[in-house]
Amino acid sequence: MPARRNFGDDLKGTPAWPEPLEKRRTIVLAEAGSGKSSELDYQRFDLRQADKLEFKATVRDVADAGLEASLVPTDRARFAQWRADPDTPCWLSVDSVDEAKDQGHHFGAACRKLADAIAGLKERVHLSRAAIPIGIRRRGAQ
After folding, report:
1. 28 contacts 34 by C-beta, under 8 angstroms
2. Does the pLDDT at position 142 exceed 60?
3. 24-141, what's its fold?
4. Where are the domains of the chain?
5. In the sheet where 25-29 sits, what is the strand order?
6. Has residue 89 got a pLDDT over 60?
7. How many CA atoms lie within 13 A of 134 on its CB side?
8. Alpha helices in the chain (DSSP H)
9. Confidence band of 103 (pLDDT split at 50, 70, 90)
10. Cβ neighbours of residue 133 under 8 Å, at least 6 residues apart?
11. What is the mean pLDDT of the chain?
12. Tell me: the pLDDT tens digits for 114-132?
């Protein structure tokens, strides 16, 4: 079984990473500061080692500038190559949902811009998103 790096035994009974990564949409829910971002980075590293196309963006940057503009320059070129290849899947991590809300960025705007960026290609995108469950966010805000 692959290492769960930051989450360890806390995830007993849940699928190991290769299974969720093969799904089209995956949401990682955990408390703020629990390592969601680091875990997604580890998974992106493993995907890259396996010669799979992976990209990372933040909710804040996608809401502000759109998906392609939020990618680092080398990833923008790789993203354009991916769009042009009708048979290649990609893995996209969208992170920092809690920080984006705290800074007044709207998740809905990020979703619309993300949908625009992958319009007609969504069946080739494996999307992972990190978030804090609503109940935990409310409890922490009190």
Report:
1. no
2. no
3. Rossmann fold (3.40.50)
4. 24-141
5. 25-29, 125-131, 90-95, 53-58
6. yes
7. 0
8. 18-22, 36-49, 59-65, 67-70, 73-84, 97-102, 107-117, 134-141
9. low
10. 29, 30
11. 80
12. 999 999 999 999 998 887 7
Amino acid at site 5: R
- At 88 the pLDDT is 94
| pLDDT tens per residue across span 2-33 | 344 555 555 555 556 777 778 888 888 888 78
Amino acid at position 119, single letter: A
**Distances from the Cα of 137 to the Cα of 54, 61, 66, angstroms:** 29, 21, 26
The amino acid sitting at 8 is G
Whether the Cβ atoms of residue 27 and residue 129 lie closer than 8 Å to each other: yes
Name the nearest CA neighbour of 17 among 7, 4, 6, 31: 4
Query: Looking at this protein, which amino acid is placed at residue 113?
Result: K
State both tokens at 34.
């629990």
Main-chain dihedrals φ then ψ at residue 92, nearest 5 degrees:
-120, 125
The predicted structure's pLDDT at residue 15: 56
Token couple for 97: 């949902």
